[in-house]
Every structure is written in C-alpha cells, then in structure tokens.
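Ex. 9. Protein: Dolichol-phosphate mannosyltransferase subunit 1.
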Amino acid sequence: SVLLPTYNERDNLPLVVWLLARTFSDSGIDFEIIIIDDGSPDGTQEVAQQLEKIYGSDKILFLFPSGTAYIHGMKYATGDFIVIMDADLSHHVRLQKQKEGNFDIVSGTRYKGNGGVYGWDLKRKLISRGANFLTQVLLRPGASDLTGSFRLYRKEVLQKLMERCVSKGYVFQMEMIVRARQLGFTVGEVPISFVDRVYGESKLGGNEIVSFLKGLLTLFATT
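Predicted structure tokens for Dolichol-phosphate mannosyltransferase subunit 1:
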C-alpha cells in the first residue's frame, strides 16, 4: 500500500501514479495507491477521482483526510507493507532492500552511498544538511537521513510507531526513526537520488524550520 498525501499536485499526480503502477506491475507486486488530499484548491481532487476511475478503486483509492493523512490512510491500507512518499516526483521507487535484510523499515537516504540531491539551491541544501547534522549530534539515531519522507514500513510496525509519535510536519519523519530505534525495530537504508519537484512549489518555510528545531529539542529532552 502506498500512502500518497497531496496538496496542489494536480500536474504531478498523474505522473507519479503512472510510475508507481508501472514499477509495481513490472515487479509482479500487488499494490494499491491511497491518495489523501488536504483540500487542494488547484483541482488535485478532481484529478485523483479521475485516476480512481481509470485504474479502478481496487488500485487507486481517493480519500479526504480526517486528522493526520498517514493515520487516516492507514485505516484503509490492506497491504502487509506500507510505503509513504511525496507526490511531487522527488522520490524514485526501489523495492529490493527490504527483502535483502528483512527490515522492519527501509528509509531512502540522500546522504549515503551514491545518494544525492538534484535541483536544490544552496539555501535548501544547507538547511537539509544542517538539520541532519543537528539530529545526528543530538539524537544519534543510527540512520543517515532523518528528514526524508520516502520510507517503507511493515504495516504493524507503522501502526505501533503512529501510536507513539506526537510530532507533525517535518519533525514527524525524524521522530518515527527515533521511536523505531527505541522500540528495537530494524532500519535499512537505500541510497536515493532526490530530484526537486517538477511542478509546483515547496512547502518548506520559516514556520516549518522553527517547528523542526522545537521538535528536535523536545526529542532530545525526552529520548
């Protein structure tokens, strides 16, 4: 099951759904894509409804969120594994790592092996690198990329982590890995090439950066 939160992704959504469907089909993997739209004013909801008709409701399910998108989407997920990712075409799907180590979680990393970031300006790179550096120093999480949002979870593991995670926004991804370490879940990493969004604008702003720093300090004080 792929949980795909969206906001103003009208142009990206058909492409990412097509790429996911092709990847899973070529790999012989049964799949479903759950689109959870947070009230996009740009027509994303209409596009999602059309995709549901084209692919069928057994493959594409469109939801209006009630509360946190991931929690709401997980209620409808039927797969043994759940992938969470962005809908902006920044993440490129790789499926082999979980089988290699039978991991509870597989996290995409931009900062290990041949992973990398493409299309960002210097400011975005410094923010991301700085956030990960601070996280490594304060929390020592045992993973190289804490702020990325491309991950695969065993469904039961994701449910347990969701029950304990209190953060929102960009801090959420970081807390999930920290809580996983606390609970003894295994985490594998696979290098990914993160390509900046093709259409639309990033939602990262000053408020998110402040929220991240507050969340980091809170985790440092409580873990």
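Check your answer against this statement. DSSP finds eight helices and nine strands in the chain.
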